[in-house]
Specification:
It contains two helices and two strands, in the order E-E-H-H. By secondary structure, it is mostly helical. A hairpin with a 5-residue loop joins strand 1 and strand 2. The two termini are about 25 Å apart.
């Protein structure tokens, strides 16, 4: 069994429960380890989809939190930091759009 962890070492749930040990190695893959997190060949598509999905959702959540922070700063009359954070949120959203596109492309390649 393998585990995906985020940047803080927390376990990441990736789409389904693990009631038993199994591999995420797609048929025909060159990944021999059965543990795609350590796969160097880049053929572990299911692992990539799980990680991209998690990272996209994680980033979307951070963008929402930052947007709320900017709104709170505006309420306190701190317009300059509010504006800067709103610009950062816009950058997050652009990056998330690209991650979403990458996720779609990976899924399309798996068909």
């Amino acid at each position: 069994m393998h585990l995906i962890k985020d940047e803080n070492g927390n376990l990441v749930h990736h789409g389904h429960a693990h009631d038993e040990d199994h591999e995420h190695t797609p048929a025909g893959s060159t990944c021999q380890s059965g543990q795609c997190g350590s796969c160097k060949e880049g053929d572990c598509k299911n692992e990539t989809i799980a990680l991209l999905t998690y990272m996209l959702q994680h980033n979307e959540h951070h963008a929402q939190e930052l947007d709320q922070m900017a709104d709170n700063l505006a309420k306190m009359g701190m317009d300059a930091p509010c504006k800067t954070i709103k610009e950062a949120v816009s950058d997050f959203q652009k990056g998330n759009m690209r991650l979403g596109l990458a996720l779609t492309l990976v899924k399309e390649e798996m068909k």
